[in-house]
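Entry 14. Ran structure prediction on the chain below.
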Amino acid sequence: MTLAMSWDEWTAHDGTALAARVRAGELTPAELAAQAAAGIALTNGPTSAVVEVFDDVVADPLKDGMNPDGVFAGLPYLMKDLGPTLKGRLQEMGSQLMQGNRASADSFLAGKLRQAGLNIIGRTTTPEFGVCSSVENALFVTRNPWDLDYTTCGSSAGSAAMVAAGVVPIAHATDGGGSIRIPAGVNGAIGLKCSRGVFSIAPNLSDLSGLVSTQGAISRTVRDMASFVDHCRGGAPGEFMPYWSAPEPYADLIQRDPGRLRIALVHQWGDFAATPHIAAELERMGRFLEGLGHEVAWAQPAVDIRAAFQAQTFCYISNFAQTIETLLRTLSLDRPPADKIEPINIKIWEAGRDASFAQRFAMQAAFNSTARGFGAFFEDWDILLSPVTALPTPRVGTTEYLTTSDNPSVHDWFENLWRNFAYTPIANLCGIPGISLPLAWNEHGLPLGMHAQTRQAGDGLLLQLAAQIERAIGGRWNDGRRPGVHVTAGSA
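Output, structure tokens:
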């Protein structure tokens, strides 16, 4: 098959640039889709990041109702196999139990994606129900394109790998505690978790019932992310809260540098701390930001981190238990079958299925006090900057983080998770935005994201700072380096 362009040319374009060429009549959505499908064929063998390619929409990008006049003009897009549903398409949630599960309707966000001109051409991998930090089970083992001995982390594992490998400029992701920002950070991509009230999770959940989970994307450039938020945000009818709008489109806002910002650095986070190498990388980034004219110092919110994480753990256990309970009722099962659901997820179901209102009320009180503490902090500081992880990227086969773990205690399992993924979950608890930017390296020479957070509805400020950094480094995220598994290198 003859492709529309070379791989070097393909990866020199972001989604915005490819869309501009479609509007100019130089390329067609079908040519873009064919190129992305060829990229999957080149890279999916070693990475195992894509569950399925929708051959029918590769051949006919208009088949599922994609709007070719949308801002992305038919740009190929991959959907995480969790969250928004696509009518008639499989959604198997990384679970053996859900094999063959087919959605009966589009979710609200799926319609927004298509209206924005995104051509959804396939599904990417996720751990079972998106619970753990890596895709490593009987279905898939998704590997980091920078070094196949290491995981992509998760839970938006396959999407991060495909963006990093140059297959697509932007892909769908979800985030309940870092599942956008962590895989973006360890795969050398940009990952934004927006504030509460930006992306709808209708019709099956709302911000009230979902509480910590948000939708979003992983991208290679800031302007793609800005346009994605501009055109896919907004609430569905019947939301429990207003969905807010930005004063101006982020695509316009990011053309200007932010003013001088007060940026706080943190790597000691309650009981959790970064390795000396990762802490040094954070300090190096602080000096870089000072060079851009910002004020940088060490500071952090005056909150009870231990209480916040205990509440967050209870939230996950009680929420995921009900997710599993709902699936069991749908399948007329009394309990999770041990041969179809992974051990930690069964323990989560056992621990959380009978959670009381009193326990949820105590959780919400901890959420409130934590969010108020962060709110007070951001009265004095503009940005809180940390690493995206406290420890280096785990190797494939590090079972302590997996839901296939034999850890007898679900609480100990979560505590172990937090020791590595300490910096991202509280943004979900508070409903504030966070962005991971590919600016540093861990001890093993793999990408390490730097994680910026700000006040509620400060999403535009994060994108503005990210765009300022992108201009300062000449667009050379990851110091201009590419992973070994990349479309420009075939399947090396």
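The longest strand covers residues 434-441. Will compare against last week's run tomorrow.
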